[in-house]
Design a protein that fits this description.
Length: 212
């Protein structure tokens, strides 16, 4: 299987059955450059923040009231992790755990995979595909300011995630020119950072990596 692209069409050729599949280009959709659409233009603002000490039962009620499926877990307003409705189903419901006894910090995912508000929608979609996630907290000035979901991207470009998946199958792991950062508390100094990197078994901020 291989592929070719031009300005408007992405073509996947399957050599096993000699079939070609045509998709709108990852770079263009309905004539709009995907590389020019910024995450901030599509993201949802005002994500739900819940304290790490809150029980899952309390957190779920807050999710239902807001009509959302994702929350950012914080400790004294410092983001620690992310929790989705899928986490609740897989880690609590499927195991028969009591949501009034489980703390959100017990099942949250940490540190948080994040995307910069000024990154492109194309990069966000590629990052989701690589990390196999459906939600990306959006950061600006070392703060989480929004949330980008797979559905947000699909509304703009319905086939973009399929294209990225096919490209990954054919080319292997996607390579980025820039590093991928995570958000959370530095495991050395304890300070919050949106630029954590995994170094020698710990998630470290730029200062503790000696580059800040």
């Amino acid at each position: 299987m291989n592929f070719i692209t031009n300005r408007f069409i992405f073509v996947i050729f399957n050599s096993k059955n000699n079939k070609k599949f045509y998709y709108p280009s990852i770079h263009f959709y309905f004539g709009v450059k995907m590389v020019e659409i910024k995450v901030r233009e599509v993201m949802s603002k005002n994500p739900l923040f819940v304290e790490s000490s809150m029980t899952l039962w309390e957190a779920v009620k807050a999710m239902v009231q807001r009509g959302i499926s994702t929350m950012i877990v914080v400790d004294n307003n410092v983001p620690l992790g992310i929790l989705t409705d899928r986490d609740i189903v897989v880690k609590v419901v499927a195991r028969g755990l009591d949501p009034t006894e489980v703390k959100v910090s017990d099942i949250m995912t940490k540190p948080i995979v994040v995307i910069n508000a000024d990154d492109t929608l194309e990069r966000a979609a590629t990052l989701m595909g690589k990390k196999k996630i459906r939600k990306l907290p959006v950061i600006e000035n070392n703060k989480i300011i929004g949330l980008l979901s797979e559905n947000d991207i699909v509304r703009i470009a319905p086939t973009i995630l399929e294209i990225i998946e096919e490209k990954e199958k054919m080319k292997g792991e996607v390579e980025y020119k820039e590093k991928e950062y995570l958000a959370g508390r530095c495991e050395n100094c304890g300070e919050f950072s949106t630029e954590l990197l995994y170094v020698n078994g710990k998630y470290l901020c730029p200062v503790c990596r000696g580059v800040g």
